[in-house]
Amino acid sequence: MERQNGELLVRMVNIHKWFGRVYALRGVDFEVYRGETVGLIGDNGAGKSTLIKILSGYHQADQGEIYFEGQRVRISSPRDARKLGIETVYQEQALAPNLSIARNIFMGREPVRRWGIIDRKVMNEESMKALANLGLRLRSPDLPVVTLSGGERQGVAIARALHFKAKLVILDEPTVALSVKEVEEVLEFVRQLQREGISVIFITHNLYHAYDIAERFVVMARGKKMADVKKKDTSPEELSQLVIKSAFAE
Amino acid sequence: MNERRMGLGRKLLLSRSSSVLIVLVVLTLGFAILSPEHRFVDPDNLRVLLSLGSEFSIVALGVGLLMVCGEFDLSIGSILVFCSFVFLRLFEAQVPLFFVALTTILVGAALGIINGLITVRAQIPSFVTTLGTMMMWRGLALLFSGGEQRGCDVSTVPSQYFLPFFTGRIGGVFPAQAFWFIVFAVFLGILLHYHRFGNWIYATGDNRDAARAMGINTDLVKTICFMIVGVLCGFVACAQIARTACFTSRAGEGWELKAVAASVVGGTSLRGGVGSMVGIFIGALTISVIENGLVVMRIPYFWTYVVFGLVILFSVLSSMYIEKKQREVHQ
């Protein structure tokens, strides 16, 4: 699992972001290596989500640079991010509850035949395949997502990333409203992404959910990066001390 | 367990459209049997129902589509009357009919786009945007026309195609307006259910943030839906003038809420993301049938709104009941 000499996938350099008068990110450097899983932790309002939304094209940085596979890139929309191979699984807003599983997986990138007519056969088959790859067996691709459990829903969102050959999957608080059993289910999906060699950023304020699967931890507080440590050099106790301390320190 | 879910999902989909269909069938049969001398099913009345009713129903299809993507349009009647006025003016200026109709429809499209742009750019609820444009366009139409009715007899101009296109009878029987109603319903149904743009409409209405995160330009989707409504209003403005041979500043009055009613009766959610073109089609037809049926029954016009109210409440309550039952089974 030693990857510090591996190839850099993403490098964010000196990222600054203002929201009106709120200084949300104050010069953050952040990188992810190929195939690596990074736990991004910190209290609410630490800037984790803002940082990640810049990477996924939802916000734009006011200052700073992003490199992807060594190239300087400009990510000005979610579409740009997806073109690069960056897929984001947002905590709650990733899925349209009344739409079917297949329509959710292919949302915005529907396979089409002539004149933009959706190729349902391909869409349904590919959906079931992507879900099966995650070890998730659902009865039909036509089920509306609202009928699934919380864990299964995250599975659908992650299957989407898997199907579109993401190089980096960002999971934004994927375990936030889930039962213990469902959390374990989601962690198993993440392990599948790891087996496929996909880089993962796992954002959480529950350290213990990230601890099992991440290889490196980045701690943020008040718009700054406070720590960047490998799992082998730390412990859950030390990390939680770090989170608490950095939240109060000035 | 999954088996049961699947079964219920199916049942729900079926029952949504089928409960609307039952309402329509019951009303139709009721009117057919109870109207004096069964006048409701008299060919002449059916022709009136299909031509007049289809004018409203065509616009209602667009409103339903717009509601699926999570927006309202209260300005349809006003766009319609403004388009009619444009038609009148161009006609009086002796512009060739083809260009009169084309311009009228383009003006409708433009007014729809204006609704859309104000709504998405300023992030105002479309209920408010279109409340404003509803008053504005009708106000301008009244102002320019002096609130008068004015003759606009298209048949005075020699044209082979115009009248048959909008008001002709296919095979000498079937009104052109009903034909267009079906054509638009099929077209919009394919768009909504089979085309990728339809998936964007659903996604936008169901969860706008998710749609945006997946790279769908939700502002564009909404604006296009507003534009579709505008185009349909322009089209119906032409059809109405062709049929009545006059301009009236009261055209389209009261359509806005009837169209919302048609969509709701057809199973469209007020919150967006839920609805089907079959349901909207049947819902629009139901509204037209009620309006016509009560007239044929010689029931005072004022009863119309009472019946509308009852039908709306019945369909909303029954679909809520179905949803609740379904949720209970899932948990």
TrEMBL record, chain A:
<keyword id="KW-0547">Nucleotide-binding</keyword>
<protein>
    <submittedName>
        <fullName>Sugar ABC transporter ATP-binding protein</fullName>
    </submittedName>
</protein>
<dbReference type="InterPro" id="IPR003593">
    <property type="entry name" value="AAA+_ATPase"/>
</dbReference>
<keyword id="KW-0067">ATP-binding</keyword>
<dbReference type="GO" id="GO:0016887">
    <property type="term" value="F:ATP hydrolysis activity"/>
</dbReference>
<dbReference type="GO" id="GO:0005524">
    <property type="term" value="F:ATP binding"/>
</dbReference>
<dbReference type="Pfam" id="PF00005">
    <property type="entry name" value="ABC_tran"/>
</dbReference>
<dbReference type="InterPro" id="IPR027417">
    <property type="entry name" value="P-loop_NTPase"/>
</dbReference>
<dbReference type="InterPro" id="IPR050107">
    <property type="entry name" value="ABC_carbohydrate_import_ATPase"/>
</dbReference>
<dbReference type="InterPro" id="IPR003439">
    <property type="entry name" value="ABC_transporter-like_ATP-bd"/>
</dbReference>
<feature type="domain" description="ABC transporter">
    <location>
        <begin position="10"/>
        <end position="247"/>
    </location>
</feature>
TrEMBL record, chain B:
<feature type="transmembrane region" description="Helical">
    <location>
        <begin position="46"/>
        <end position="67"/>
    </location>
</feature>
<feature type="transmembrane region" description="Helical">
    <location>
        <begin position="97"/>
        <end position="120"/>
    </location>
</feature>
<comment type="function">
    <text>Part of the ABC transporter complex LsrABCD involved in autoinducer 2 (AI-2) import. Probably responsible for the translocation of the substrate across the membrane.</text>
</comment>
<keyword id="KW-0472">Membrane</keyword>
<keyword id="KW-0812">Transmembrane</keyword>
<feature type="transmembrane region" description="Helical">
    <location>
        <begin position="12"/>
        <end position="34"/>
    </location>
</feature>
<keyword id="KW-0813">Transport</keyword>
<dbReference type="GO" id="GO:0022857">
    <property type="term" value="F:transmembrane transporter activity"/>
</dbReference>
<feature type="transmembrane region" description="Helical">
    <location>
        <begin position="220"/>
        <end position="242"/>
    </location>
</feature>
<dbReference type="Pfam" id="PF02653">
    <property type="entry name" value="BPD_transp_2"/>
</dbReference>
<feature type="transmembrane region" description="Helical">
    <location>
        <begin position="302"/>
        <end position="322"/>
    </location>
</feature>
<protein>
    <recommendedName>
        <fullName>Autoinducer 2 import system permease protein LsrD</fullName>
    </recommendedName>
</protein>
<keyword id="KW-1003">Cell membrane</keyword>
<comment type="subunit">
    <text>The complex is composed of two ATP-binding proteins (LsrA), two transmembrane proteins (LsrC and LsrD) and a solute-binding protein (LsrB).</text>
</comment>
<dbReference type="InterPro" id="IPR001851">
    <property type="entry name" value="ABC_transp_permease"/>
</dbReference>
<feature type="transmembrane region" description="Helical">
    <location>
        <begin position="273"/>
        <end position="290"/>
    </location>
</feature>
<feature type="transmembrane region" description="Helical">
    <location>
        <begin position="127"/>
        <end position="146"/>
    </location>
</feature>
<feature type="transmembrane region" description="Helical">
    <location>
        <begin position="74"/>
        <end position="91"/>
    </location>
</feature>
<feature type="transmembrane region" description="Helical">
    <location>
        <begin position="166"/>
        <end position="192"/>
    </location>
</feature>
<dbReference type="GO" id="GO:0005886">
    <property type="term" value="C:plasma membrane"/>
</dbReference>
<keyword id="KW-0997">Cell inner membrane</keyword>
<keyword id="KW-1133">Transmembrane helix</keyword>
